[in-house]
Amino acid sequence: MKHPFLTVYGYLNDDEILSDKMSTMRAVNEEGENMIFTFDVREEYQKQEYSPIIRMTPISNVEAVWSDDDSEIHELVFSVELFTKSVNNSYELSSYIVDKLKNKHNCICINENLQYDELSDLYNSFMRFKIFITKGEI
Asked: Least enclosed by CB within 10 Å: which of 48, 54, 58, 121?
């Protein structure tokens, strides 16, 4: 059994359409790296030429307890951050991610916040999601 967050990470990490979209926007494609990370993005990749970059982090994981004290599902809240060179790239990728997670995995986007990071010279779209995952799915 694996952590529910790793199940959700796999939804994006294994998505060839998302990977292709990101590759066409990127100036430099690093062999073997799709630029989808958990927790930390290595410092050498925190540059414009490697964007877009995705960082995913779990925020909370709670076992939903029923009245009979039997836990069947996990309620997972997690973030997806996009680092892109343009607002349009951010919008295209975030729209794809929100639609995919909603339509294929019954996951809702709680909020989205777009900011500009002067230090990296990249736009940062921070999205927060909530999903319920049945224990048998992980």
From this structure: 121
Q: Are 72 and 134 in contact (CB under 8 A)?
A: yes
| E strand intervals along the chain | 36-38, 53-65, 71-84, 108-117, 122-134
- Which amino acid makes up residue 101? L
Please report the pLDDT score of residue 27 as a whole number.
Answer: 78
CA 99 to chain centre: 12
- Using CA atoms, how far apart are residues 39 and 57, in angstroms rounded to an integer? 5
- Tens of pLDDT, residues 102-123: 999 999 999 999 999 898 899 9
CA-CA distance, 21 to 26, in Å (whole number)? Answer: 9
Contact 58, 102 (CB under 8 A): no
Average of per-residue pLDDT values in the chain: 89
- Residues listed for the chain: 138
Q: What is the pLDDT of residue 110?
A: 96
Cα separation, 72 vs 26, whole angstroms? 41
Question: Any bridge partners for residue 127, and if so which?
Answer: 80, 112
